Amino acid sequence: MSQSTSLIHVYDQLHEQIKKVLEKQFFFVVGCQKSGTTWLEKILDNHPQMICRGEAVFGNVLAPALNQALGAFNEQIKYRNAQLGDYNALMFNQVQLDYVYLTAIGALVSPWIKDKPDVKLIGEKTPEHAMTLPVLNKYFPNSKVVQIIRDGRDVAVSGWFHNIRFSGDKFKQNFPDMPSYIRYLIQHHWLPYINQARAFGKQFPDRYFELRYEDLHADAPDVTARLFQFLDVDASAESIQQCLDAASFKNLAKGRDGGQEDRGSFFRKGVTGDWKNHFDDKSEAVFMELGGAMLKELGYV
């Protein structure tokens, strides 16, 4: 077998894998960073009828990158054609751009289904996708969206310690104190993500499911049952418990119980109401100034 024949065989296999991926039902998990999106992803990924992974950044990184690259190619072709007087050269049209984008997604996701080829649903978790749902909806018009919402004050505390762990001095240069970070978080993440995902839900109510981090803590079996019913997968008590056990804080945090803090771990503490231990008067005033109305709307105040 020649090298070119071997490559064609590989490409044929990949093409079939991509086709299988894109024939599946997709759903997207969104929510502000540090709102429990990873916990929710793990619960869903352990269901035998689903795969849920992250963060593939289809809408906020891949789409603009491909549009920019192929758009730049088209501009170069136009420039060269104008110089040569040849206006018959081929350029990418919109249908071809869309094809490249969907093919790229299928290629990226195809390794996910190797261990579970017969799954009913493919889920992807990227918090920032709350801001790019119109893009995803264009390419996945039957997809469903799950938004998890958390008390923004707890989001701020969790995000504060996560960024200190991850970026350290660089983060503290940009945000010397918690109130400055709270202001940024509310304006650029917490409020916009909630509002944009809810706007999608108003437009497509049958394809949108909203849950609260705190409710998932308080009664995980009930919330999970409603979520599984929304996704139209097995919602039996046995299936639910299997997923919750696999995604428990103790498992994710490698043996720690919820409330046992480890500031060096992505899964730092796993509790609700921790903001009360870290907010001072200024932090609370800044949050209430910018996010107080949403806190009331969500029932946190």
Structure in words:
- The chain has 301 residues and is an alpha/beta fold.
- Strands 2-3-1-4-5 form a five-stranded parallel β-sheet, sandwiched between helices.
- It is globular, with a radius of gyration of 22 Å.
- The chain has 13 helices and five strands.
- It has one domain: P-loop containing nucleotide triphosphate hydrolases (Rossmann fold, 3-Layer(aba) Sandwich), CATH 3.40.50.
Question: Under the CATH scheme, which class?
Answer: Alpha Beta
pLDDT < 50 stretches: none
**How far do the termini sit from each other?**
70 Å
Q: What is the name of the CATH superfamily? A: P-loop containing nucleotide triphosphate hydrolases
Beta-strand percentage range: 5-15%
Mean pLDDT: 90
| Discrete helix count | 13
Structural domain count: 1
Fraction of residues in H or I helices: 55-70%
Radius of gyration: 22 Å
The CATH topology corresponds to Rossmann fold
Strands of the largest sheet, in order across it?
2-3-1-4-5
Q: From the coordinates shown, what is the CATH architecture? A: 3-Layer(aba) Sandwich
Could you give the count of β-strands? 5
Which labels suit this protein?
Rossmann fold; 5-stranded parallel sheet; 59% helix; 301 residues; single chain; alpha/beta
Q: Quick recap of the structure?
A:
This protein has 301 residues and is of the alpha/beta class.
